[in-house]
Write a structure and sequence with these properties.
The structure holds 2 protein chains of 2 kinds. Chain A is built from 13 helices and 2 strands; from the N terminus they run H-H-E-E-H-H-H-H-H-H-H-H-H-H-H. In chain A, strands 1-2 form a two-stranded antiparallel sheet. The longest helix of chain A is centred in the first third of the chain and has 35 residues. Chain A is globular. Chain B folds into 2 domains: about 170 residues, D-Maltodextrin-Binding Protein, domain 2; about 160 residues, Periplasmic binding protein-like II (D-Maltodextrin-Binding Protein, domain 2), CATH 3.40.190.10. Chain B is built from 13 helices and 14 strands. In chain B, the strands form 2 sheets. In chain B, strands 1, 2, 3, 4, 7, 8, 9, 10, 11, 12, 13 and 14 form a 12-stranded mixed beta sheet that branches. Chain B has a two-stranded antiparallel ribbon with strand order 5-6. In chain B, strand 1, helix 2 and strand 2 form a beta-alpha-beta unit. Chain B is globular, with a radius of gyration of 23 Å. The two termini of chain B are about 40 Å apart. The relative contact order of chain B is 0.18. The chains are: A mainly alpha, B alpha/beta.
Amino acid sequence: MTATQPAAGRTPVRRLAGLLHRHRRLRLSLLLTAPLLWLAVLYLGSLAVLFVSAFWTTNSFTSEVVRVWSTDNFHALLTTPVFRQVILRSIGVALAVTVLCALIAFPLAFFTARVARPRWRPLLVVAILTPLWASYLVKVYAWRLILSQDGLADWMLKPFGLGGPGFGLPATIMTLTYLWLPYMILPIHTALEQLPANLLDASADLGAKPGRTFRAVVLPMVLPAVAAGSVFTFSLSLGDYITVQIVGGKTQLIGNLVYSNIELNLPMAAALGTVPVVVIVLYLLAMRRTGALSSL
Amino acid sequence: MRLTRTLQAGAAVAVLLATAACGSSDSGGSSASGGGLNPPDLKAPTKLGKTEGQVNLIAWAGYVEDGSNDPKVDWVSDFEKQTGCQVRSKVAASSDEMVKLMKTGEYDAVSASGDASLRLIASGDAAPVNTDLVPNYKDVFGDLKLQPWNSVKGKAYGIPHGRGANLLMYNSQKVKPAPTSWSAVFDDASKYKGHVTAYDSPIYIADAALYLKATKPELKIKDPYALDQKQFDAAVDLLKKQNPNVGEYWGDYLKEISAFKSGDSVIGTSWQVIANLAESEGAKVKSLVPKEGSTGWSDTWMVSAKSKHTNCAYKWLDWVISPKVNAQIGEYFGEAPANAKACAETSDKNFCTTFHAGDTEYWKKIAFWNTPIEQCIDGRTDVKCVPYAKWVQAWTEIKG
């Protein structure tokens, strides 16, 4: 028994291996079916369902979804002032967070990639990543304490005769900037690290001052990395609705509107949900022009 | 290359659809189906049979505790032992979620607040309840029985469970003189600009309507949940004026407690349990029912029309308002029990006094949450009232 079993087990496996070896197509399709199904069914499929349900309506009393085709939701989306205002505000927040992240991340990444001693660099990268180990909610609630009345922000600014920003839009932007900063630092750090030193030397040899070298050599080579980081910060900020609930005071973003509509008016929530999808597709198209997507 | 073409196509489709949307008609939306409250003719059972061994519940957090959150808080295990009905419960976060879950038909009973109960009755998701089959019902406070949010035309659709008022809470160090009226958060709110708070739900529009009922008699508001377009607009207008003074809206009671402790909020709506907790955690707060009265909630256990475990559901209804359990839930959740005999069973002997359990005069000042529907529930027939779906839209616009 024991002698025959492995032999018997080996033959079908071998036969299968041979079959796969001979048929390249079969091999490939077996390999790719699962991930492609995942992408097509779960990801694109749910996007399609979202989009289709945005054209349905609800019964105004029982709030049941009525499958009657209508473009009223998109009409409301484009004509209601409050929706327009919230959409523009959300895009503004996402842009502000992205710009702030880029401004803060650049010098930091420059330090970790080029100024710090090489043996410290991995440790510094770990230090940048550590905030990602803590729970999102813990970090946001920490910011709620920092920004609350007589909290850390108020206490630190008091000697200068100032007060903290309190809860609201600025607080939301600050907190989101803090949350997504590592996603901006990492690509810039990598780009700066890969920047050949001899290019900088050549620039200096040709008589360029550090400022000129930065503008003419470093910046153009690192810009795609900044754009790559901005894809993260922009899309993550655009979709966030929890941070703004905790530190945003009474501010509403697109996510909050989706959330408040989801129980009573699912089609409207779906229509609102397509807005960030469209915005991000447009943003990705814009970023593709910078070559950022190839350095992701 | 292929990818970019797909993306471009996608963007083009999006733009096309957006333009198509602009030219759409304004029809649809509110159909006439919301109209009169003539619920489907469903029958309540006349006698109970053998228990089915299982019951599925939808409840507010803190209503169905089996000791898994806190080993000392458990009134489900004894129920299971005595009746043989295994309890499965689902905690819902909002009235809207409760309505949605009830529609699945997978649940037998729900602890619905007044802003959900009428919707459930009208859509035929909740069945009438034969109160004779709930022995403890006889001890329920009289002013909770057959109310507009738990009955239709004298037919009971549920068992009252407990009630509470939305209070005006304020920081006693920062708010001086002590407020006696809701004007402190409406007309005089600018005094505490940026530190006023309000409940984050469309039903809060009723609070504004209640204030207008007292201060603007020319609007002739009778019931804050039955507002015609003119009255509704006035309430929305008042809330839009309040908005610049609001620091934050609260949906989560823990957030409200922390805001009052830190001083980010100094005045606004609150619940008795929040006031008690905030005070025990050192916040200098006081709370009251202002002279205009207040809104409040009264929860009702309702049985699903599609229930497959009706006998167990009735056993649960009776269990929940039995004196001991009703007292336990009231104390754990922070609300006045529905059963008069529960007051003898509370561990804090002053509990019923603190929560005004049997204080009929106190509850007369409270306008309990109800579902706004097109047919005015205050009895007017010459006008149409603004349905809840419109309240939700208006609430989004108020917050801006």
